[in-house]
Amino acid sequence: MTKAKKSLVCWALLSPFLLVVLFPYATMLSTSLKQKDEIFTFNRTWLPRELYLGNFAELLFEKGFGRALANSLAISIGATVLSLAVAIPAAYALTRMRVPAKGALTNYLLITQMISPIVLIVGLFRMFAYFGLVNSLLSVIIAHSAFFMAFAVWMLQSYFATIPKDLEEAAWIDGAGRFSAFVRVFLPLCLPGIVVTAIFTFVNSWNEYAMSLTLLRQVSQQTAPVQIAFLTGTLYQIEWHLIMAATLLASVPVAIVFASIQRYLIGGMALGGVK
Amino acid sequence: MPGIEKTAPRRAASAGRSSKLGLPGPAFALILIAPCLLLSVAVIGYPIFDVIRMSLFDVSRTGVVREFAGLANFAKAFADPVFLQAARQTVIWTVCVVGGTLLVSVPIALILNEDFYGRTIARTIVLLPWAISLAMTAVVWRYVVNGDFGTLNMTLAALGLPFENYPWLADARMAFLIEILIGILVSVPFTVTILLGGLTSIPESLYEASAIDGAASTKSFYYITLPLLWPFMQIALVLNVIYVFNSFPIIWIMTNGGPANRTDILITYVYKQAFAFGKLGNAAAGSMVMFAILLVFALVYLFLTKSQGARNDD
């Protein structure tokens, strides 16, 4: 079979699934460009009457969705920085040093990664309430970091293990201290791995729903996914044109960033052998 | 030669420095790990302790822990028909979503592992659902299947099919089925990623060798691809069971467990008990049941990866 023929077969076989994946995007795009009367009518079509951008303006300037995006951004950046700050030293120690009880430690981290925060949500809520942190973005930053950090450690470990030890040792011999060798030699070499891990953590935090829903009880603090879900809960006619505009705004940038690291994710999974 | 003279004393000096600091290897390693461990124990460990305590004590609506109650909370949960119903539905949900995910993912991974035009684009589209918040996916699908205004009925009607105003989410069975299909859709990207990782790790030389030996491609599929992919499928299976068992946003946002609790699973049951009805003891008991089940799956996963790791390291 020629490659062209094979390509045709592959695309044909994949097309039902691809259609289902893309259907919601088409829905978002089409609906967000429509005006209200085009949605609540009998003769609905995929194509909007015109390229109407008013929904985005209404969303950002009247409904305060910009605030939700800002909250999400603050939480995701905070959670990414905090998780990497604790995960990088831990992953370095686990790949480069003799760690007592290493097996127990990695197993513990693995298990924490599997516990869903929602199973513990009652306990989490009570703990943050005790410290007066409910309704503070800080609580969600801390909670996200704790739950996403284990995966970051695991991903970083698999990247760190690919960096030859000789390079650092050469730097030590040249008189660099362990720390400066780490910063000047080791970190730049692992930068791609660190960036992929950071993006992955950011996306996880950006998309998280249950903890943000539970720990932030005020509308002004809602994150983007929580606010979008909240908007569907109105008693009156649900304003789908605005909601679809909101999902588009909150998901497309993240999807593009995520797509850019897709190659590294598959590589990372192969590297780590899913350990 | 001056190079050697120069490095030798420095090496000695740096060795001296680290011992002067009093940081021998293992202790220093623990210091590096400490922040990570502290964060995890405080934010995950303490709530585990608190939920265990609440499940064994009588807890007031406002969360005051009163006297020891033994297993009364568990007895109450198991006597609640909604809890039992949610437990049954959790099994259906988990089995259907995970089974469906693997059935869809294996062929997709095999296709994406082939060399064809536009493969990168196809991979990107397949992985796309992973990038989007489950909550937002659920919201969009809730609109897609909306009976009166949704794009699904619009499209079906345009194709001449009789689904003009069909309310997909009004009937519990149909609603649960749709939620299961969406659950499969969002689990496929992660599963395909694991399987692709496995497929790329199979050395090309194996196929070449079997081709030289005259094996047909279906034969090399059964004797090379499947056995070597099997460990990755096991891991994908266990991880998916864990994630799907825990999955909250799809059901919560699309049907909130309704109509009449017929789409509730344990996690939505627990959440309602805690944050809608204020029955914290009940919620904690439900959480503990889930936690115990999760722990079993986590141990299975550890066992699987350990036995594989041992094989790989040989």
UniProtKB/TrEMBL annotation, chain A:
Localization in the cell: Cell membrane
Pfam annotation, one family: BPD_transp_1
A single cellular component GO annotation: plasma membrane
UniProt keyword list: Cell membrane, Membrane, Transmembrane, Transmembrane helix, Transport
Record-annotated ABC transmembrane type-1 domain positions: 69-261
Membrane-related topology note: Multi-pass membrane protein
Primary location: membrane
Alphabetical list of PROSITE patterns matching this protein: ABC_TM1
Organism superkingdom: Bacteria
Gene Ontology process terms (BP): transmembrane transport
Ranges annotated as spanning the membrane: 73-95, 107-131, 137-160, 181-203, 240-261
Family (UniProt): Belongs to the binding-protein-dependent transport system permease family.
Protein name from the UniProt record: Carbohydrate ABC transporter permease
From TrEMBL, chain B:
Membrane topology value: Multi-pass membrane protein
One GO term of the biological process aspect: transmembrane transport
GO cellular component annotations of the record: plasma membrane
Domain ABC transmembrane type-1: 87-301
InterPro entries linked: MetI-like, MetI-like_sf
Transmembrane segments: 21-49, 91-112, 124-144, 174-199, 220-245, 283-304
Main location class: membrane
Keywords on record: Cell membrane, Membrane, Transmembrane, Transmembrane helix, Transport
UniProt cross-references to SUPFAM superfamilies, sorted A to Z: MetI-like
PROSITE patterns, A to Z: ABC_TM1
Compartment(s) of residence: Cell membrane
PANTHER family xrefs: BLR7065 PROTEIN, SPERMIDINE_PUTRESCINE TRANSPORT SYSTEM PERMEASE PROTEIN
Family listed: Belongs to the binding-protein-dependent transport system permease family.
Stated name of the protein: Sugar ABC transporter permease
